[in-house]
């Protein structure tokens, strides 16, 4: 793991492999851990990059630092410049969709391709629990740690349409436990502002990179119809449901997702032996 110091924040990141650059963006309440197995599998043919947004995962969670979509987009743009990447392939899940799309639309960051999986890009978004926390962040932030842990574990488990392994729930919940983690959990939900998503939708026609939209067919957090509307708003974008997957498509349908990723990136990067789908 390496650290990028940016505006007082410590952004954790890692890189592996060789070949065309592929950057993975996570969402909430997740971290780069969700993408790690896929990055490792692709590292034989690509240079893969993982990072944790400020306020998430292994990155700093200082209370004085805003964590809204605008800040995360600026952080992503700065990190890409730090890496010296020109037109990387970008793979984004959940909030990572908004961050990557806004970097492209508002700041002109060029990509070779963009794959969006169950992405938060256009409204509406958020599970019922997310919206409850959004309305009462100060109250829930004060619950005893054992209740908070139970809430977080139930919340992350609800994103799956399968029964998650206990070890996976442990990994997903771990960044949000302890005094700093608990405060950061409610702070990042309180920072959610749907106006960013409305602005994205108004600008979608300006996206000028190849886009693939994947969606868990059983996603109850953000219904597939939102994904279809997202793809329809982007010129040339394609949409595909992922059977047997909820919002946590990485854990619900890893084989199907890995197959989609390799096929999409193989075609987008022009690697030999791949037929366009």
UniProtKB/TrEMBL annotation:
Q: Which organism is it from?
A: Amycolatopsis vancoresmycina DSM 44592
InterPro entries the UniProt entry points to: AB_hydrolase_1, AB_hydrolase_fold, AB_hydrolase_sf
Q: Does the keyword Protein biosynthesis apply?
A: no
The record ties this protein, via SUPFAM superfamilies, to: alpha/beta-Hydrolases
Keywords for this protein: Hydrolase
Upper lineage: Bacteria, Bacillati, Actinomycetota, Actinomycetes, Pseudonocardiales
Q: Under what name is this protein listed?
A: Hydrolase
Give start and end of each AB hydrolase-1 domain.
Answer: 22-258
Q: Which PANTHER family does the protein's record reference?
A: MONOACYLGLYCEROL LIPASE (PTHR43798)
This entry's Gene Ontology molecular function terms read: hydrolase activity
